[in-house]
């Protein structure tokens, strides 16, 4: 891999006429000039006839007209927004837009090229593309990069409070997954994923979802190979209320703004310790059944008490059996386990965060304001305190990512 490798940007766009120019300027100003952009402007075709959605269609048309007028040589436009061109049936949403752009790229690119997934509301430094090339050059066997991210504050109290609370949820999860050396210790953001074209083809491409496609995409890639989780360059997605997808950052902020964070709890460190104890049993399970902290949950989830014997019958040695266990107990199952067990703990999010930092994270990097967490109330606390907690978690996460660098 060298400067002959081209970066193909997969960029889904919907109703983002105000944000797209900043993203495109960031791309245009990259120090690494060997890139090409594939933009999929999209919305369901039926929205043209729905009064509450027609403005989105009109804005998409403005974006399309603007791009066509510029006639940029480094941009291909996939029009899934004009009348009769939009999504129909179940084929709709950002998942289909991202897949459509990536599938197009896979047909026009070479095996040594890269797909870089972005969102139109994301900005980054002029060295981002170079950094992507560099990390894959240093890790030639990696099949993806889950790039570090950071949401900049907006000076809107409601948006800032919501995004900070959401980041605390995401970073607490990622940190604890890194601490137990989980193969699925990545953060899935569609605006921060890169991968070799060869890896995209090898896994059969992206499986489209109405939303959450980035999580399933990275999980699919992780089962195929190693994922890089460290890079000195960050991406900066916008912090904004958005209902364009069913779950993710925008919907989480909207839901959280009403005071409902049930879907995004601060998981207690003890639950991750149970997952680690289960991981530690995988090798022994190759030889005989034994009870793990997750046994009851897994039996219920798979509707069987014979999970391990079935895996044993399919794998002749312990190494392949352990790998099969990790593929069985994947990122989705772990999230399901965490949500199930968190409800049984009867601990507040504030208490979980306090105990996680006090008993675990403080041993990595000392948190200077620990006394404030004893009386923390997410609803009433200041944005400054939330930002302080977020930035502390960023430091811890970056420290662990720097140590691990790649999920193997």
Structure description:
Helices cover 49% and strands 11% of the residues. With 408 residues, the protein is an alpha/beta fold. The protein has a domain at 7-149 and 187-248: Spore Coat Polysaccharide Biosynthesis Protein SpsA, Chain A, CATH 3.90.550.10. It has an eight-stranded mixed beta sheet, with helices on both faces. A two-stranded antiparallel sheet has the order 5-9. Helix 1 (20-28) links the parallel strand 1 (7-13) and strand 2 (35-42). Helix 5 (157-179) packs across helix 8 (249-257) and helix 5 packs parallel to helix 16 (383-404). The radius of gyration is 22 Å and the shape is globular. The model has no long low-confidence stretch (mean pLDDT 93).
General form: globular
Tell me what the CATH architecture of the domain at 7-149 and 187-248 is: Alpha-Beta Complex
The H-and-E topology, N to C, reads as EHEHEHEEHEHEHHEEHHHHHHHHHE
CATH topology of the domain at 7-149 and 187-248: Spore Coat Polysaccharide Biosynthesis Protein SpsA, Chain A
Biggest β-sheet, characterized? 8 strands, mixed
Level-1 CATH class name of the domain at 7-149 and 187-248:
Alpha Beta
Count the DSSP helices.
16
- Give the strand tally: 10
* Widest sheet: strand ordering: 3-2-1-4-7-6-8-10
Please write out the topology:
Blueprint: E1 7-13, H1 20-28, E2 35-42, H2 54-70, E3 75-80, H3 94-108, E4 114-117, E5 122-124, H4 128-138, E6 142-146, H5 157-179, E7 193-196, H6 197-202, H7 213-224, E8 226-228, E9 235-237, H8 249-257, H9 269-285, H10 295-302, H11 307-314, H12 318-328, H13 331-345, H14 349-359, H15 370-373, H16 383-404, E10 406-407
Parallel strand pairs: 1-2, 1-4, 2-3, 6-8
Antiparallel strand pairs: 4-7, 5-9, 6-7, 8-10
Helix pairs in contact: 5-8, 5-16
């Amino acid at each position: 891999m060298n400067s002959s490798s081209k970066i193909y940007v997969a960029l889904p766009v919907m109703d983002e006429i105000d944000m797209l120019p900043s993203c495109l300027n960031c791309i245009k100003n990259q120090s690494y000039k060997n890139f090409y952009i594939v933009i999929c402007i999209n919305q369901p075709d039926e929205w043209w006839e729905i009064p509450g959605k027609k403005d989105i269609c009109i804005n998409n048309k403005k974006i399309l007209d603007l791009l066509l007028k510029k006639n940029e040589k480094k941009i291909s436009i996939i029009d899934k927004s004009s009348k009769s061109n939009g999504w129909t049936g179940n084929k709709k949403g950002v998942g289909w837009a991202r897949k459509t752009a990536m599938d197009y790229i896979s047909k026009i690119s070479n095996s040594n090229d890269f797909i870089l997934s972005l969102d139109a509301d994301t900005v980054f430094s002029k060295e981002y593309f170079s950094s992507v090339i560099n990390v894959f050059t240093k890790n030639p066997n990696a099949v993806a990069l889950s790039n570090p991210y950071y949401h900049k504050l907006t000076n809107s109290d409601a948006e800032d409070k919501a995004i900070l609370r959401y980041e605390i949820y995401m970073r607490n999860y990622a940190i604890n997954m890194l601490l137990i050396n989980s193969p699925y210790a990545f953060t899935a953001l569609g605006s921060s994923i890169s991968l070799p074209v060869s890896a995209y083809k090898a896994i059969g491409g992206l499986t489209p979802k109405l939303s959450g496609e980035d999580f399933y995409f990275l999980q699919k890639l992780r089962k195929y190979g190693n994922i890089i989780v460290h890079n000195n360059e960050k991406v900066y997605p916008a912090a904004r209320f958005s209902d364009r997808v069913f779950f993710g950052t925008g919907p989480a902020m909207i839901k959280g703004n009403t005071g409902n964070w049930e879907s995004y709890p601060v998981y207690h460190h003890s639950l991750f310790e149970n997952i680690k104890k289960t991981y530690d049993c995988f090798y022994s399970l190759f030889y005989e059944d034994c009870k793990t902290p997750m046994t009851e949950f897994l039996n219920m989830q798979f509707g069987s008490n014979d999970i391990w014997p079935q895996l044993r019958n399919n794998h002749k040695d312990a190494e392949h059996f352990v790998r099969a266990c990790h593929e069985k107990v994947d990122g989705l199952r772990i999230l399901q386990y965490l949500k199930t067990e968190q409800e049984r703990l009867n601990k507040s999010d504030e208490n979980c965060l306090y105990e996680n930092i006090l008993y675990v994270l403080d041993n990595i990097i000392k948190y200077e304001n620990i006394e404030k967490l004893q009386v923390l109330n997410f609803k009433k606390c200041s944005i400054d305190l939330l930002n302080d907690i977020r930035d502390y978690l960023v430091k811890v996460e970056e420290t662990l990512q720097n140590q691990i660098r790649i999920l193997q």
